[in-house]
Amino acid sequence: MKLLAALAICSLSFLVTEGGKPEPCSPPKLLEGNKVIFDPSKPFLEFGRFSYDAVQKRVYFGKQVMIGVEKFISVEEFFLFEEAIMYRFHPQNRTCEKSALRTPFPEIAIPQNATFSGQVYIGGSSAPGEGVLANFWTFAVGDYFYGLTVTEFGCLLMSVFLQNKEGGWNLESFYDLTTGISDPSVFFPPSECNNLN
Q1: In angstroms, rounded to a whole number, what is the distance separating the alpha carbons of residues 106 and 52?
Q2: C-alpha dihedral sign at 162, 164, 167, 169
Q3: Please, which contacts does 116-120 make with residues 24 or more away whose CB atoms are closer than 8 Å?
């Protein structure tokens, strides 16, 4: 039932393909791109550019928070897991907040105990170039159920569906991904974040 809900929410046109069962995979350890986060329990939508570094365990998310249909707020978030610190910078008024990170680094990977739930074409399969071949995996971590869609070739993350035991959920979609980090300085917070307690 959860799998059906995840597929319905993603609103994907797909074709189940035949073939050998894929193995759990891990994407590149250095990754950049764009993502959209939708959480129906919140009155806003988040989207923007992210950089992911699994080597030094850090994540940058420069996002726009869309409130209603016309109001946008810019926020930059710096997650430095080796230091267990998170900075949130507000470019509009050049202010910064600092808080402790108490969660482990969110490694993007398909765990070995994940269930392979199907292989699909996102888009179409009638002609070359109409779609992208992707694998859908499901697994549970504690009280959370995950559904991950990754590309068959390269193991690039396309979407993450997350549901808790109370039934709340959110969906993250990823696009325009590239491997590597074009500008490592993106992980360094602005000077306004220095010397915060």
Answers
A1: 10
A2: negative
A3: 116/21, 116/22, 117/3, 117/147, 118/16, 119/16, 119/17, 119/19, 119/22, 119/152, 120/12, 120/14, 120/15, 120/16, 120/17, 120/149
User: How many residues are recorded in the chain?
Assistant: 197
Facing residues of 120 across strands? 134
Nearest to 13, CA basis, from 139, 126, 110, 116: 126
CA dihedral 60, 164, 84, 91 (to 10 degrees): 40
Token pair for 183? 């500008």
Kindly list the distances between the CA atom of residue 183 and the CA atoms of 3, 13, 175, 180, in Å, as whole numbers in the listed order: 37, 35, 19, 9
CA distance 93 to 75: 11
The dihedral of CA 45, 122, 154, 176: what is its sign? negative
pLDDT digits (tens, 9 = 90+) for 119-148: 999 998 888 889 999 999 999 988 889 999
- Residue 62's nearest CA partner among 82, 89, 80, 44 is 89
Render pLDDT for 20-64 as a digit per residue (tens, 0 to 9).
Answer: 689 999 889 999 999 999 998 888 889 999 999 999 999 999 999
